[in-house]
């Protein structure tokens, strides 16, 4: 159990630099935190009267009977029903949900994109979201969507939550603040944030313009993968995930709340900030994580391990061992395997692999896979190193080699990923990417013992 009292409440008078100090460490912990002393009931969840005239309310991230249940008790200035009113549909044409199969778009293929450029247009977290692929079905709560965000403007007295999905946010450029019901999370490149389904938040630009990647998870929430025979250490460690301390706003100001529900967006007008949770306890919370704390493991004698060895988070499906989504991180590491082709080998996979480049070069594609760019290798489509990468790795001196200046990731799902119209027609698609394998040569020689 972690407990921490927030040194500052998120009030109208607070300066941006003093909104929060610190986070609570641990993944899946049962946290408790209060922004005012005594705001958190002790020994019970729902007292007859809460201190400070607060309302007790539970946010459930799983069914009541799930094991273990994931829920957080909040103690807030108003119950959430006061942050909800009549809704009107809102059109956000670039944010798509599965199923989204455009008959004029071919998703069968190997694709790669340059980093989308900033247009100079003012874009918020909602208007700047650009869906690249969708997979599964948001209505049956399986699958995912992959997005690029281009954000230049803070949300002003505007708030959002997704009833559809958990969001995994991977910045590539700029710094963002997520002011949530449960506290404040600031993220920058080489960090990620996980925003749970149903949590209200506002996104502010701390340093822009901002660009990054989002994995929208419709299914079971992300968890840490089992390490199996690796044991208790390395990969991502629970203590490096940070949950925010309680902070609240008590502001009477006309505001807008937008909800994503079954792939549609709905907007309601309210008269105050909904970020009014003064204290909370539970295990359903947002997190941030520093990717530089990920400790990779790998082969130290021969052969190249499966990319699953680099899984940072996984969202399980109903099929054991087959994820709804894996979030896989490829960062700096030493390569030491003997008599081994060290880059990823050629393969076809039941999983669909969408990769993004945070910075540097990726070893299997040293040319063309640029920071801010993405690639897609859909299920059961072959892919692997280009000729230069193959020749370099096949003929390299196999001494210890530091793979440096690199950080890329993969959103991998058991479902085929369908391109959106934006990905096919507006995003900077590299039309010649498929040609990167054209000059691979036939090397077959039937002479016995010939390599």
In short, what is this structure?
With 451 residues, this protein is mainly β. It contains two helices and 25 strands. The chain has two domains: 16-101 and 118-291, Sandwich (Jelly Rolls), CATH 2.60.120.10; 295-436, Sandwich (Jelly Rolls).
List the helices and strands and how they pair.
Blueprint (H helix, E strand, L loop, with lengths): L1 E4 L17 E3 L5 E4 L20 E6 L10 E6 L11 E3 L19 E4 L15 E9 L4 E10 L6 E5 L3 E15 L2 E5 L3 E5 L5 E17 L23 E4 L10 E7 L2 E7 L6 E6 L4 E4 L20 E9 L2 E14 L16 E9 L13 E4 L9 H8 L6 E13 L4 E2 L1 H6 L25
Parallel strand pairs: 1-3, 10-16
Antiparallel strand pairs: 2-15, 3-18, 4-5, 5-18, 6-17, 7-23, 8-9, 8-25, 9-14, 11-12, 11-13, 11-14, 13-19, 15-19, 16-17, 20-21, 21-24, 22-23, 22-24
Helix % is under 10%
**Structural class of the secondary structure composition?**
mainly beta
Uncertain residue ranges: 1-9, 11-20
Strand content: 35-45%
Tell me the total number of β-strands: 25
What is the total domain count?
A: 2
| Topology order in helix (H) and strand (E) letters | EEEEEEEEEEEEEEEEEEEEEEEHEEH
Average pLDDT, to the nearest integer? Answer: 92
CATH H-level superfamily title of the largest domain: Jelly Rolls
Supply the CATH class of the largest domain.
Mainly Beta
- The radius of gyration over CA amounts to 23 Å
Shape: globular
What is the number of helices? 2
Identify the CATH architecture of the largest domain: Sandwich
Alpha-carbon distance between the termini? 59 Å
CATH topology of the largest domain: Jelly Rolls
Main beta sheet: 10 strands, antiparallel
